[in-house]
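hey so i finally got around to running the thing on that chain from the lab meeting. sorry it took forever, my laptop kept dying and i had to restart like 3 times. anyway pasting the input first so we r on the same page abt which one it is
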Amino acid sequence: MEEKEIIKEMEEKRKIPFEVKNEIMNKIWECILSAIIVYAYFIFLNLGIRNIHQNILLTDLKVFSVSLAIVAVMLLEFAYRKKETKNLYRGIEVLVLAIITMLLQYIILYLTPKYRIIVPIFAVIYNIYFVLKALFLLYKTKSSYIKNLSDIKDIIAK
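ok and heres what got predicted. didnt touch it at all, straight out
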């Protein structure tokens, strides 16, 4: 009888509570929202080559890349001051997006016919990154919760 109660109690402890599930879902929704925003950005860049004159598009890409670089530096500086890794990762993501935008200028100049193929490839790669990030955050949050359930720390402390 005692063994069954202990097993039942352990199973109840291993169930993830609502707060942890809510935290996991918030992180996943942030990744999904970021992926949607980046994908929409790449869609507009791809539509730009069709509807905007090449010189104007190059100017727009320069403005976008500099703007994204400024935002990335601000995020990195904010992360450094607050010592938050969340903003550090966002800053790196925005910096990579700024670098890709800078590269697109040269792709327009030298590989104009392939621009319509390269932009969706960048979008897919970036979205794969966000899916992998969401899966990693899910795994990390669950494993840290399960690790904190362990009684070994208390036993060792005693």
